[in-house]
């Protein structure tokens, strides 16, 4: 399974599925990270956390633990 955290800087991918449950999953969905949404990785912090992505026309920073539950292709 390839996750959002595996996407290289400058590459784009499409969200396939959000794993997990509860408040974290709902929060990511509220931010626009739903199945079929394309995003592009813009930056990764020096220690790898957080990851900055462009999704639905805005910039979003998410932690590696959040990115780990987002399956992409």
Q: Could you characterize what this model shows?
A:
The chain is α+β, with helices and mostly antiparallel strands and 73 residues long. 16% of the residues lie in helices and 37% in strands. It is built from two helices and five strands. It has helices spanning 23-30, 64-67, and strands at 12-18, 38-44, 51-55, 58-62, 70-72. A five-stranded antiparallel sheet has the order 4-3-2-1-5. The longest helix has 8 residues, at 23-30. It is globular, with a radius of gyration of 11 Å.
Topology diagram in text:
Layout: E1 12-18, H1 23-30, E2 38-44, E3 51-55, E4 58-62, H2 64-67, E5 70-72
Please describe the structure with a list of short key phrases separated by commas or semicolons.
single chain; alpha+beta; 2 helices; 37% strand
